[in-house]
Design a protein that fits this description.
- The protein is mainly α and about 400 residues long.
- The chain has one domain: MFS general substrate transporter like domains (Growth Hormone, Chain: A, Up-down Bundle), CATH 1.20.1250.
- It is built from 19 helices and 2 strands.
- It has a two-stranded antiparallel sheet.
- It is globular.
Length: about 400
């Protein structure tokens, strides 16, 4: 986007200095970890949630769809609406909303209450994620901004791969309600940390909604958003229903599923940092590798996943590849719009969470209509499409932030 267009939609305020430091960055990373864990928590708990609330597995998957849709809408809307408020106050308020949403989900006597709880989680998640990405530059010296931004993003990536197995383990040790209580309490702990460690962060500028939307027309941003949409939709079409797939294809029991998801999660954490290093040099090359590996792995689960051992190997490779999606695509978008990072981040959050919602929805339709293994073929096909878009679309020359 041309600089003049951006200036038409951003009103600059005087720069104000604030205390800076890594403890504050760590608190923000804790916030991103908690919101994304809250969003994805139902994935490993679909079967017991459905049984307790009297709904099908496909309907239980809507708990993820609802949160993703609300997060997709709230992120680009909250960015301009909350532009005048101190960021520390906003983040603390959003974490309070998240805590209430998780505790309400734990109490849910029926599916309608669960839906209301997941709406609250979506609001908190979308707002925190959109705001957090732009804070590193205000908390550490300029030479450390890249590392601090990666740490904040790592909260998202680690939650993406560890939140599901953690929820599954808690659900196995106690029950699914205890998993939601645990994350609700974690949200309150992070709220206290944010209030104690963050400096005052007055709004530096206001971003109008029109400026956020026009940024999506920039070719590199548009390509990056398309890759996000395809990879995340494909992943969640398959991964939302990974538990019933493992039960049907591999014959894995509840305890073994928790172990397999943990294998996936550990591999995903490694994938986050490996891909982060690669994306700093070339986001396109990194995403080409991720898309190819993800497509092959997901498609092979119904074919080679007949034993727990082979399923575990496939889940490890799956986690290694998907663990790099968040940091690689975020690096692509922020490098594509360095003059409008908060606006780019809000678009990223909107598309990412809309894709989570769409993936869970189409995966549910495929699972209910053609069987759970069909979701794996769907996920693989979308990853192949992402590979083509990455190869053919406009990309930033490097991932330097």
């Amino acid at each position: 986007m041309a600089q003049t267009e951006e200036n038409a939609d951003i009103t600059t305020a005087p720069e104000r200095s604030a205390p800076r430091g890594w403890p504050a960055v760590a608190a923000v990373a804790g916030a991103t970890f908690t919101v994304v864990t809250s969003e994805m928590l139902p994935v490993g708990l679909l079967t017991p949630i459905g049984d307790a609330l009297g709904v099908s597995g496909g309907t239980a998957g809507l708990t993820l769809t609802i949160t993703g849709l609300v997060g997709a809408v709230s992120a680009p809307l909250l960015t301009p609406l909350l532009g005048r408020f101190d960021r520390r106050t906003v983040l603390c308020a959003l974490m309070a909303v998240l805590a209430v949403g998780n505790l309400l989900a734990a109490w849910s006597p029926g599916f309608a209450v669960m839906v209301a709880a997941r709406v609250l989680v979506g609001i908190g998640m979308g707002g925190v994620w959109a705001i957090a990405a732009s804070l590193a530059v205000r908390l550490v010296p300029p030479r450390s901004v890249g590392s601090a931004t990666s740490l904040i993003f790592s909260g998202i990536a680690v939650a993406s791969v560890l939140g599901v197995p953690a929820g599954a383990y808690i659900g196995e040790l106690a029950d699914w309600r205890a998993a939601f209580v645990t994350v609700g309490v974690l949200a309150l702990v992070v709220l206290i940390a944010l209030a104690a460690l963050l400096p005052r962060l007055p709004a530096e500028h206001g971003v109008r909604l029109g400026g956020v939307l026009r940024l999506s027309g920039e070719p590199r941003v548009r390509t990056g958003l398309a890759v996000v949409a395809l990879l995340v939709t494909g992943h969640f079409a398959a991964y939302t229903y990974v538990r019933p797939v493992l039960e049907e294809v591999s014959g894995a029991g509840a305890g073994m599923i928790g172990t397999l998801l943990l294998v996936y999660g550990v591999a995903g954490v490694a994938g986050n940092f490996v891909a982060g290093a690669g994306a700093g040099r070339s986001p396109r090359s990194t995403l080409l590798v991720i898309s190819a590996v993800l497509a092959a792995t997901v498609a092979l689960v119904p074919v080679l996943g007949g034993s727990v051992l082979t399923a575990g190997v496939l889940l490890a490779v799956w986690g290694l590849s998907y663990g790099g999606v968040s940091v690689s695509t975020q690096t692509w978008l922020l490098a594509s719009a360095p003059e409008a990072r908060e606006a780019a981040s809000s678009l990223f959050v909107g598309v990412f969470n809309g894709a989570i919602a769409l993936g869970a929805l189409v995966g549910g339709l495929a699972a209910d209509g053609a069987g759970v293994t069909a979701v794996m073929w769907l996920g693989g096909a979308l990853a192949v499409t992402a590979l083509a878009v990455t190869a053919l679309g406009r990309a930033p020359s490097s991932g330097r932030l």
